[in-house]
């Protein structure tokens, strides 16, 4: 009898081990969820390619239907207002309101009333990744095309294309301004800096250590979707991606991804690529990660963000382990030279010079530092307090699944500098706000500031001067 009981216990334990192993190797099971991705790929690449290509039109239609429901995606440029390199910016509130609701009536409600009535605008809700269950880096077509032309390296995903229209994105290639050589203006001269041209553009401007740091920032290394293994999302084996494939010219091209530090998948947040301009005055890095130095950020991106925060997968796909004392430091030293664009209407304290500003811009500045409460986080002269803040936007809506993303809460978000903000659309950490006008409406509701139509218009005019 005792022997039979022992045999039964051994069998039960063996069964549990098999079940647990299946959960870890094959993904989450109902009984045993896992934080790990599958390492052992059981489907051959040709089948994966065919399956995901076939699914692509339906996935992209689902995302475009969501965007059309949320926004006016038309090309409506602002007159006489451009980014620092000359691209026109988009104007107007693009977020669509629920039927029977106006911006004034929405701003007059309490968070509890908005939540109970279900009238929080869809465009204020968190924005899913173009394919949230799959995730991964996705690049705008204009960047893909230029990298193909210069390097013959293909950043096309066979399963997915970028979702937002080009006219809502930063100019490309973006100008590069250096803190060390402001006399030179845009040192890129209209070129996208890559491994092919970085030396020609910067030799004689940077010192050898900075040149080496820049070389590493434009050198391709293996990444989750772009690598040599069968578990990739490029048709052919890939050399990988570079830091400047997202932070193009040390700025941003609005490439998107999912944060690597949240599980399960549906709770992960879409992330906008932040500009690297002005990192020398910043003390936190990453939209929600609160990394304390640009060296931490640089090392973290290569070791973790490139591989969805999974060191097991990183080892399989070819993680690039950077040396902290030389390579990381050199990369950071170059990044810290990247300056904000010129702001000729601002004085040394970051405030408007009255003789150079319009009446609307001066009124907007008064709103920014007064009723709008913007300056409580975005403090002059660089318009950041270098802290994290939780806006608690979940006060306004009930948790819900949106295209396989669970919209429940955003958590603490870094206060990004607003210097040069007109160069960096779309806005907020997940790109949900397409224009500065949308951003003003969002904060007017979330902060309950009850600005008038004129005050909101003036506030946008002021932010365009930063």
Describe the structure.
By secondary structure, the protein is mainly alpha-helical. It folds into two domains: 71-125 and 345-466, Cytochrome c-like domain (Cytochrome Bc1 Complex, Chain D, domain 2, Orthogonal Bundle); 133-342, no CATH class. 32% of the residues lie in helices and 5% in strands. The chain contains 13 helices and eight strands. The chain has helices at residues 2-26, 45-70, 103-108, 111-117, 141-151, 198-202, 208-217, 294-303, 311-317, 324-335, 359-368, 436-446, 453-463, and strands at 77-82, 88-90, 256-258, 270-272, 388-389, 400-402, 405-407, 413-414. Strands 1-2 form a two-stranded antiparallel sheet. A hairpin with a 5-residue loop joins strand 1 and strand 2. The termini are far apart.
Strand content: 5-15%
The residue fraction in helices comes out at 25-40%
Task: State the order of secondary-structure elements, H for helix, E for strand.
Answer: HHEEHHHHHEEHHHHEEEEHH
Strand order across the biggest sheet?
1-2
